[in-house]
Please model this.
Amino acid sequence: MSIIDKAIEANRNYAKSYKPSPGNRPYPKIVVVTCMDPRLSDLPGILGLPQADIDVIRTGGPAVTDDVLAELIISNRVLGTTEILILNHTGCGFTTFTDEEMNAKLSADTGDASPAPMRFFAFKDPEENTREQIKMVRSHPWISKEVPVRGFIFDVATGLLREVQP
Model:
């Protein structure tokens, strides 16, 4: 049985005790832009906040792309989040290659260079990357200057957060 088939089977069991709350939309308090790395999946544990208080945007890097900016704007202006946290981490896979290397590798592996050059948002320094992502968020005119935007690096060896100064 594939992993997806196992997940579908588990969902059937989940649905048996699922209790929907019709008409209730979420009211998260903070939006977190974090990496797709599974080590960052336990945000309630990492941040000590209830799941319902956290609007999560996951992206490789964590890169603040145009799509992520749109999600941040909706999170803030529609859902009502009042703070933005950029959460990077040590040991990120996106530091192990460059966009150019990945384009060349995938073109060679597949024999199809037509998608290149793709932007993968690779980076070398998590601290500098976090500063750049904060700057991307801060520079958007639809994100209120009153909304705090702070960046942190999660240390995968210790579980501690370290704030990155912009």
Remarks:
- The longest helix spans residues 3-16.
- The chain is about 35% helix and 15% strand.
- The helical segments are 3-16, 43-47, 66-79, 99-110, 126-138.
